[in-house]
Amino acid sequence: MTIVKHRSVNTIIKHIVLVFLCLVYLLPLYSLLLAAFRPGRDLLRYGITLQTLIPTGMNFANIKGLYTIREGIYFTWFKNSLVLLVVQASLALFFSSFVAYGISVYHFKGKKTVTTLVIFLMLVPIQILILPLYKLMITISLMDTFWGVFLPMIVSPFAIFFFKQYIDGIPRDLIDAGRVDGLNEYAIFFRIVVPIMPPAFSAMAIFMSMQSWNNFLWPLIVLRSGNKFTLPIGLNTLLTPYNSAYDLLLIGALAATLPIIIVFIFFQRYFIAGLTSGGVKG
Amino acid sequence: MKLKQTIGTSKITPYVFIFPFIASFLIFYLYPIISTFIMGFQLVYPGQVEFIGLENYRKLNNPEFKVALLNSFRYTIYTLLLLIPLPLVLSVWLNSGNRTINSIYRSILYVPTLISVVVAGTIMRLLFASSNRGIINTLAIALGAEPRQWLLGGPSQAMILLLILALWRWVGVNIIYFLSGLQAIPDELYEAANIDGASGFQKFWRITIPLVKNTTIFVTTISIFGGLAMFEESYILWSGTASPNNAGLTIVGYLYKKGFQEGEMGMTSAIGIVLLFIVFTLNTTFLKTFGFFESEGRQR
Amino acid sequence: MKRFLLLMVLITCMIGMVFAAGSKEQTAAPKEGTELTFWTFQDLHMDFYKTMAKLWNEQNPDRKIIFKPEVLPFQDMHTKLLVSLQAGTGAPDMVDIEIGKFPNFMKGDIQLASLNDVIDPVRDKFITARLDIYSKDGQNYGLPFHVGASVIFYNVEILKAAGVDPYAIKTWDDFLQMGKIVKAKTGKPMATVEVNGQWSFWPMIAQQGSDFVDADGNVILDNATNVKTLQYLKDLLNSGAAIAAPGGNHHAEEYYGFMNDGGAAAMWMPMWYMNRFTDYMPDLSKKILILPMPRWTADGKRSAGMGGTGTAVTKQAKDIQLAKDFLMFAKGSEEGNLRIWEDLGFDPPRWDVWDNPRMNAPNKFTNYYVNDDIFGMLLGIKDEINSVNVKDRLPAVIDRVSSSVMIQALQQQNKSPAEALKEGADLSR
User: Fold this and answer.
1) Segment 12-51 of chain A within 8 Å of chain C by CB
2) How far is C253 from chain A (nearest CA, A)?
3) b/e map of B5-34 (b: 16 or more CB within 10 Å)?
4) C377 and C402 share a domain?
5) Is B148 a member of any domain?
6) Does C315 map to a domain?
7) What is the number of CB-based contacts under 8 A between chain A and chain C?
8) Looking at per-residue confidence, does B69 or C89 come out higher?
9) Could you read off the pLDDT of A125-166 as tens digits, one per residue?
10) Pairing relationship of beta strands C139-140 and C242-244 according to DSSP bridges
11) Are residues C156 and C138 part of one domain?
C-alpha cells in the first residue's frame, strides 16, 4: 500500500515538472504567435512585454506586409526554401540510402575504411569546412546558385550511417531470395530493400527537411542576390540596424515556422518510430 | 550491354554503390581540406598570393583567438553537463506511464528543434530586451532583482543566454535519442528487478544507465562537435556584430570574422586547420576510448 | 488516410499561395534602361538614391537606368560584398561602404572602380580630406555623403526642468558639473555613452587632434590623450551624470525608444545623426537643440569630422561608366549636395553649396529642431572640424574599441582605461 502511495506521489511530481517544463518550452512560441500581430515599433523599443502576451487587440494588418514588402519578395524566399527542401531532401535520401546499402550488404576491399570514414565525417561539423568549400564554389562557378547550396549536402554521412544501421537489420534471406529470383543487385535494392524502408525514409525525410529548411550559415555564404535567398537568410535581412522591421520579421517567422510544425505533427508517429527502429541503437 | 554486365558483376557492384560517397568525399572534403592546408601558409588577397610560411599560425597566438577557443570549449562542456543528464532523466520518465500523455510531452519538448536559429534567436532577443518592460526584466523586477541589459553583460551572462538557447533547442532531440535507446531495453530486465525488490533509483542506476551507454556515447559525440561548431546562435543573438568583450565569440565565429568580414583568407585557413586538428584528435581519441570502432565491426 | 489527404491539401495551398505571389511579380511590365543594382545598410540612403535616380532619368532620357536598391544588415552587407568581390561574381553595380570597413576593400587587387576621371573636373569644390579617406595611392574609390561634423544634441525640456542653460556649457568640465545638477534635479542622466560602439569616444579624441591610427597608419589608440579622455568618460558615468546607452550604442533599437521617451538630456554624435532623431524619435520634435561640442581647453576645437559612408562602383558593374556618372550625379553634383542636406540632413562635402540659399530654407530638419539656423551653426565651426585617419589597421582598431575596450573600461570597469586601451592597441597592431 505504501509503495503504491509512494509511486503516485512520484507520478504527480513527475507530471508537475513536465507540465511546467512544457509551458516554459511553449512560451517562446506563444510569444512569437502573439508578437507577430503587434506593431513593430513597440517590439523595437520594449521587446516582448507582458502586454504582448495578453491575447487582446491583435492587429492583423501585419499579414498584408508579407505581400507588400519589396514587391512580395517574401514569397520568393518561401518558394526558394521549398524548392531547395524538395531537391535537397530527396537527393540526399536517394544517395545516402544507395551508399548505405552498398556498405551494409557487401564485403569488399576497403569496407572497413569506408565505414570508419563515414563515422568520422559524421562528426566533422560542416561549419569548419565553409572556407574551403567556399573557395571550391568559386572555382567551379557555383556561387549564388541553388546547386552550390545543396550539392555539398546530398551525400550525408549521418544519413548513410542511419540507413546502414537500418539495412543491417534487414534479414539477408530477403536479399538472397531476390538473387534466386534472378534480380540483379540494383533491382534488389530498388524493388526489395527500398519498399521495406519507409519508416527509415520518413524519419530521415523529416530530419533532412528540417535541416534544409533551417539551414543558415552555408546559404548565407553561397547566396548573394535577394531574389535567391532562402527564408532564414531573407528574414535575417529584415533586421537592418537602422530600421528593423520586427513586425514583418515576426509574422514572416511565424509563416515560415508553422508549415514545418504542421508537417511534424502529421508525421511524428513515423518519425519517432523510424528513429527508434533503426538509427542510433548503438 | 557489356558495360551493364560489368557493373552488374559482384566484384564491382559494391563500388558502384559507394561511388557517390567516395566522389563527394573527394570533392567536398578531401580537396577543400588540402587546399586549405596550402592556403594556411600563404597570404591570400584578391589577385595576390604569397608564401609566408608559418606567419598565419604565429598570428593566431593572440588573446582574441584564445577567447574564442575558451568560449567554444566552455560552451561545449556546459552543454554536455546539461544536455546529457537532463534529457536522460526526462526520457526515462517519458518511457513509462500513459502513452498518449507522454507523446504530447515529447512533441512539445521536440517542437523547438524544428525552429530556425534565426527565429529562435530573434524571439530570445525580444524576450530578453533591455527595457524594463521586457518580459524577462519584468519577471526579474517582480522577483526583486535588478533589470539587466542581458545582451551586454559579461561573459558569464552571455554564456547563460547561449545555454538557455541550447537547452530550448536541443533537449527534445536528445530525448528522442535516449528514448530510442531505452526502448531497446527488454522489459524483462525491469520485471526481474521488480521481483528482486529494486527501487526506482536502483533500476535507473543498475539497468538503465549501463544499457544506454552506447546511446550516451553517440549523444556525447554529437554534442561535442555541435558545441565546438557553435556559431549561428551567437551570430543571431548579437545580430552579426562583435559581441561585447567577445563574450559570444567562438572558434567558428572567429573563422567567419577573419575570413568573410575581414577577407584574411590565409589566416582563416590556418584557423580552419587548427579546428580540423582539434576535431580530428578528439574524434580519434574519443572513438577509440569508447570502442566505437570495435562495436561497429563486431555488431551483426 | 484522412490525415494524409489533409496534408496534401495544405501543401497544395501553400505552393499555390507561393506561386500566385511569384507570378504577380513576373507580370510587371518591363521598363526601359540599364539595370543598376545598389546595396546599402541604410534605408535613408536608399531613399536618397531612389530620388536621384528618378531625377537622372528625367535629365538623361537616352541613358535611363532601372535602379534596383537592396537594404541589408550592416555586417551582412559588408561580408557579402567582400565575398562577392573575391568570388568575382554576385556583387552589385554600386555599393555603400562604411568608413570603418573601407580599408578591408583596399587589399590586393582592388575590386572597386577608380573614380578619378569623374571627380577631377570638380575636385577643387570638395573638402578634399573627405575624398582622401576613400582613396589609396592617389586613386579615389568612394564618394562621401558628408563632412560628418560632430555636434551635441540637447533635450531642452529636460535642461529647462533642471534649470541648466545649454549655452553656458563651454567645456567638458562644465558638462560634467551641469550633468550632476541635471541628475540631481530631474533624476535623469545628462548623457548617454556608447559602451558597445566607438561614437562617443572617437569624436572626443579627434577633437583634441588625437585618433585611433596616425597619418602613417600606426596604431596610437593607447596614447596619453586617449587614456585621459576615456578616464573622463568613466568619471562621467560613475558620477551618475551619464549612463551606458540602452542597447549599448546609439543605433540600438532600444536606444531610440529610450530617448524618445525623454530618457536623457544630451548625447553627442556626428551631424548625420540628425535624421535618426527626426525619423526614429518623433516625440522629441521641437525639444532638441544642436550645438557644437564642448571644448577640452579654452581654445580647443569644438568638433571633428566623423564617420561616413563612401559609395563605390564595383568592377563587376555591367556598365561601369554609367554607374560612375550616375554616382557622380547623385553625390557629386551641386543638386545632389543640396539634396543631401534637404533629404538626409547631412552636411554636404562640396563647400561651394554651403552658401546656397536652399541651405537655409525650411525643411523637415529645421521644423524638428529648436535651432533657427542649423547650417549657420555648422558654418560657425567649419574651421574647427578635425579629420580622422583611415588606414589599414582602422577596422581592427574599431572592432576592438567597440567590442572590448569600451565595455572593459566603462561598463564592467574590470580594467582601467589605460589597461583597456593598451590591450586593444596591442591586439590591433
Assistant:
1) 44-47
2) 5
3) eeeeeeeebbbebbebbbebbebbbebbbe
4) yes
5) no
6) yes
7) 95
8) B69
9) 777 778 788 888 888 888 889 999 999 988 889 899 889 888
10) unpaired
11) no
Domain boundary among C365, C382, C415: C365
Q: For residue C179, is it within any domain? A: yes
Q: Which chains would you list as touching A if contact means 3+ CB atom pairs under 8 Å? A: B, C
Choose the closest CB to A217 out of B119, B228, B232.
Answer: B232
Which chain C residue lies closest to B240 (C-alpha atoms)? C75
- Three-state DSSP at C44 gives helix
Establish if B268 touches chain A: CB-CB under 8 angstroms.
yes
- Cβ distance B63 to C427 less than 8 Å, yes or no, reads yes
Residues of C in contact with A259 (CB under 8 A): 10, 14
B230's CB contacts (< 8 A; 6+ apart) are B72, B75, B76, B162, B166, B250, B252
The pLDDT confidence band at residue C315, using thresholds 50, 70 and 90, is: very high
pLDDT at B232 over 60: yes
- Mutation pick from A48, A54, A160 vs chain B, by most beta carbons of B within 10 Å, is A48
| Beta-carbon separation of A242 and C44 below 8 A | yes
Contact A69, A248 (CB under 8 A): yes
Per-residue pLDDT for C223 more than 50? yes
- Whether B87 is covered by a domain: the verdict is yes
Structural domain boundaries enclosing B190: 59-117+168-298
Number of folded domains in chain B?
1
Beta strand segments in C94-212, E: 94-98, 135-136, 139-140, 150-155, 191-193
Question: What residues make up the domain containing C110?
Answer: 35-147+307-365
C282 and C317 in a single domain? The answer is no
In angstroms, the CA B281 to CA B288 distance is 11
Sequence spans of domains, chain A? 60-281
A60-281 to CATH, choices 3.40.50.150, 3.40.50.10240, 3.40.50.300, 1.10.3720.10: 1.10.3720.10
- Residue ranges of alpha helices (H) inside B184-212 are 187-195, 200-203, 209-211
Choose among C22, C28, C251: nearest Cβ to A75: C22
Q: Cα–Cα distance between C227 and C172 in angstroms, integer?
A: 15
- Please indicate, yes or no, whether residues C202 and C300 belong to a single structural domain of this protein: yes
Cα separation, A186 vs A188, whole angstroms: 5
Predicted pLDDT of residue B279: 81
Instruction: Enter the pTM of the model.
Output: 0.83
Query: Do residues C216 and C338 both lie within one domain?
Result: no
Mutate to test the interface with B, among A43, A117, A127, A247 (most CBs of B within 10 A): A127
Q: Which CATH number characterizes residue C380's domain?
A: 3.40.190.10
C340 and C294 inside one domain: no
C interface mutation test: which of A79, A224, A244 has the most C CBs within 10 A? Answer: A224
Look at residue B1 and tell me whether its pLDDT is greater than 70.
no
Does the residue B286 lie in any domain? yes
Q: Are B20 and A103 within 8 A, CB to CB? A: no
Partner-chain contact C90 A221, CB within 8 Å: no
Place of cell 536606444: C255
- Which residue in the set C3, C4, C21 is minimally distant from A72, CB to CB? C21
Query: Which strand ranges, in their side-by-side order, compose the sheet holding C94-98?
Result: C65-71, C34-40, C94-98, C309-313
CATH number at residue B270: 1.10.3720.10
Between positions 47 and 66 of B, the ones with CB within 8 A of C are 47-48, 62-64
Q: Is residue C243 part of a domain?
A: yes
Taking an 8 Å cut-off on Cβ atoms, the answer to whether A132 and B36 are in contact is: yes
Residue C312 lies in a domain: yes
> Under an 8 A CB cutoff, do A240 and C71 touch?
yes
